[in-house]
Amino acid sequence: MIKSSVSNCPVPTEQQPLNEYEELKTSWLFRDCALNWREHIKKMLWIWSLSWVLAGPVAAASFPPHKHLAQFILCGALGASIGVILLLVRLYLGWYYVSDRLTSPTVFYEESGWYDGQTWIKPEEVLNRDRLIATYEIKPILRRLQLTFASLAGMFVAGSIVWHLL
Fold it and tell me: Judging by DSSP bridges, how do beta strands 106-110 and 117-121 pair with one another?
């Protein structure tokens, strides 16, 4: 964990926004968001493929593949996308939370429990450092996740059009 450059910071180490960012950045679930586009797409396709394990049998029960192949594929693809959407929501909310804590001029923290919360006003140097990290490290990740959401929405629209044409 990185310690704050301000020695009089009353915020517990694990609740300091910079340390929350470092922890999130190294977490197995969240670290893949910082990969290049190709790796990011591969990970999303991998999750989507694994989701087919659940979505495939449900789609086959509704639309037997030997009778309604196109409907089976579209229904299965939609069902498998739910796993990707849930993952994307979790990733987005985690990164957004840390970004919000970094860009905020104050830090709410708990000293020993939920009943004794305090607020610390960041010194200017800490606020500037945190905002730089949020701008140059986290904002691109949030944009990538937003574009992934938009791509999924576009695929849903395309799938709906194809469904209505069948």
Answer: antiparallel
